[in-house]
UniProtKB/TrEMBL annotation:
The lineage of its organism: Bacteria, Pseudomonadati, Pseudomonadota, Betaproteobacteria, Burkholderiales. It comes from the Bacteria. This is Histidine--tRNA ligase. Coiled coil: none annotated. Residues 27-341 form the Aminoacyl-transfer RNA synthetases class-II family profile domain. It catalyses: tRNA(His) + L-histidine + ATP = L-histidyl-tRNA(His) + AMP + diphosphate + H(+).
Length: 435
């Protein structure tokens, strides 16, 4: 009988293993601290939603909905009806659905954030995977430009906290629906007059979503796009005032930015302010965070009209950027490594180890197997390789005396002293790593 075929992970869906997983945990902890500083609260939504949520919220002619969603028909119920479901390609729509469903805005606006996996069926490449992870911050129920600026400042705060220095901020204003309609008509007229220069994707979008043509990555169309009518020229007084107020806060906070009139973002729900944080350190996948205002999405999903603004950052890209910028992410190591000369010492040592752990000391216990625990020399090698600052030696002499030998492996290496085996609380704090 032949051996079973080994099963590998799905292409573009990656395992996150130690020691890399420690970098993820560290980043998530830093995000939680930043979110707490701005009074944002955590929300966790399902990774699967009704497909209609995304077609209605994101736009039926966006790349995400047209090409990239993992969608399927669920098993029929007892009446033969089957739901159309999709793995979430982003989480703003799901968060808004949760806010509407649970009436979270009944007593005023909410500042919320999320972390988790998203799914898009696209060609895997550096910083772009089929299962990828996003962290997002959303402020719902607030219509003022100061909240747009606050969301941007939250991201700037996070970059500083993480030690990321090389980024630039680009802003644009998409205006309101009537202003976008006027701009849309001008775009169609312009591109129709240059139809021979449009690629297949642009021709397909010309009448369904011409604004997305401005976001083309085709080098042959750059000159044509650069000459297209600008949305900023179609903005009314209120939209201009909103955009200027956002910029005024950023200038006052000393945040550098540039205005990119071609910045439209890839989803249809945005209005007024849109923005992206971009780095030149990651090649083509340079956008590490993007977002904007989406004042009409809550109503589109079935809630009472309410304004909202938010952003999402790509976790994989930010982690890559940390590496490119040489940011040192601390790896977790045990405070102490327990060395056990034989199986008979385990029952005596275990209560001491448990008491130390209860006092906040991270202890790794040496484990053997059928062959036994191994020699003291091999255990000391593993203790040193673990990164622990101390070795705890539970020898027969120590146990007989009701003691354990604590040996320094790093600072003052080799120094050792005996401590009480039955009262580890008296010496536990000395084992803890400095904060």
């Amino acid at each position: 009988m032949s051996a079973p075929t080994r099963i590998a992970a799905i292409k573009g869906m990656n395992d996150i293993l130690p020691p890399a997983s420690a970098r993820w945990e560290w980043l998530e902890d830093q995000v939680r601290q930043a979110m707490a500083a701005y009074a944002f609260r955590n929300v966790r939504t399902p990774i699967m939603e009704h497909t209609q949520l995304f077609t209605r919220g994101l736009g039926e002619v966006t790349d995400v909905v047209e090409k990239e969603m993992y969608s399927f028909e669920d098993r029929p119920d007892q009446h033969g009806k089957a739901d159309h479901l999709s793995l979430r390609p982003e989480n703003t729509a799901g968060l808004v659905r949760a806010v509407v469903e649970h009436n979270l805005l009944y007593d005023g606006g909410k500042r919320l954030y999320y972390m988790g996996p998203m799914f898009r069926r696209e060609r895997p490449q550096r910083g772009r995977y089929r299962q990828f992870h996003q962290i997002g911050a959303e402020a719902l129920g607030f219509g003022g430009p100061e909240v747009d600026a606050e969301l941007i400042l939250l991201a700037v705060h996070l970059w500083a906290q993480l030690g990321i220095r090389h980024w630039r901020l680009e802003l644009n204003c998409l205006g309101e629906p009537d202003e976008r309609r006027a701009h849309r008509a001008a775009l169609i007229e312009y591109f129709e007059a240059h139809a021979g220069q449009l690629d297949e994707d642009a021709r397909r979008r010309l009448h369904s979503n011409p604004l997305r043509i401005l976001d083309t990555k085709n080098p042959a169309m750059q000159a044509l796009v650069d000459g297209a009518p600008r949305l900023l020229d179609h903005l009314g007084e209120a939209s201009r005032a909103h955009f200027e107020a956002v910029q005024a806060v950023l200038r006052a906070a000393g945040v550098p930015y540039s205005i990119n009139p071609r910045l439209v973002r890839g989803l249809d729900y945005y209005n007024l302010t849109v923005f992206e944080f971009i780095t030149d350190s990651l090649g083509a996948q340079g956008t590490i965070c993007g977002g904007g205002r989406y004042d009409y999405l809550i109503e589109q999903i079935g809630g009472k009209p309410a304004p909202a603004v938010g952003w999402a950052m790509g976790v994989e890209r930010v982690l890559e950027l940390l590496g490119e910028e040489g940011v040192r992410v601390p790896e977790p190591v045990p405070d102490a490594y327990a060395i056990l000369p034989d199986a008979a010492s385990v029952p005596a040592a275990m209560p001491c180890l448990q008491a130390l752990r209860a006092r906040g000391v991270a202890v790794q216990m040496h484990a053997g197997g059928e062959a036994g625990l191994g020699s003291m020399k091999s255990q000391f090698k593993k203790a040193d390789a673990s990164g622990a600052r101390f070795a705890l030696i539970f020898g027969a002499d120590e146990i007989a005396a009701g003691q354990v030998t604590v040996k320094a492996l790093r600072d003052g290496a080799g120094a050792q002293q005996r401590q009480s085996l039955t009262d580890p609380a008296a010496w536990a704090d000395a084992l803890k790593s400095p904060a």
